[in-house]
Fold:
Amino acid sequence: MMQIKTGFEQSVYAICLLSMLPEKAVLPGEALSNQIGASPTYFQKLLRKLADNDLIASVPGKKGGFKLNKKPSKIRIYDIFLAIEGMQTLYFSNGVFNHMTDHEPCVLSDLMGKAESSWKDVLKSETIESLFKDLDKETNLQQFVNENMVV
Amino acid sequence: MMQIKTGFEQSVYAICLLSMLPEKAVLPGEALSNQIGASPTYFQKLLRKLADNDLIASVPGKKGGFKLNKKPSKIRIYDIFLAIEGMQTLYFSNGVFNHMTDHEPCVLSDLMGKAESSWKDVLKSETIESLFKDLDKETNLQQFVNENMVV
DNA sequence: GTACTTTTACTCGGATACCGTCTGTCCGAGTAATTATGG
DNA sequence: CCATAATTACTCGGACAGACGGTATCCGAGTAAAAGTAC
Structure:
């Protein structure tokens, strides 16, 4: 369907929750996936992608879990997209034009590249902090974090 | 892989070829798919999508085929994208946020919507004419069109 | 030569199959805090 | 009380199954031009 994975939205949400954690505290992956309504084992794989990209830190062992690895102001929505969706572009030329015309580079690829850059610029313009600064932290979200955080 | 279909690039290419047709002439679908290197029967389904969106006109019967239904200056790249990929957005919220916060509308959906608008604006800014105006029409492309067009 | 029929070469639309990706599930291994145990 | 072992609750990572969309293929139906046929 040519659509962004739901895992992206879930990841943004998870990082939003993690941004409400006090220093040194973590949230177990299962608590996160339960809250978000995703399959626990699968969502942990998404969390690992976020960890591999240094957006969050994982703590193994008992009392383990996940926490932010950067300040919310340093985590752009684009970074989350990149971690989940990967680095490949929305449009990838299959060389249909090159196969006919020796015209390099392809004018369509240029246009699609410009469009994609414009798209990414918007995602780079907002961070977790700027996006959720007006989210009332005193709601059940904060309550959930307080009840499920460890140490 | 969250990528635009190859059918999109092929469709742009097909319309580019059709724009080289003289008035009243048509190109059979099989000639187009052969030139583009796509599966003939499947590519005809793409051509039908373009026809359903009034970008091209189809002529049934012997000596039938396809031709443009609008002037190349009136066919935006965005129109082709819409015809092939459909109207749904790149990002569709699964309501993960709404499920927790009564915060409507979702701030993430807003951001993604802005990004998508920006992306689409670029695709709306170019037409088949503007995109291919510097394409040398005297190449083997024009030759192919001349050899395969009907009536 | 004209009227009619047949053939031909297209488009149209449905049914189906293949394949890769996303999602979901299971299982074993590693890690660290807690608890239990033995002196 | 202290050192060590066992348990517990997490993360890590691979293997695998199901669902779905994009691509590909096949077939029959509709359409219109061309070719053939009858008078």
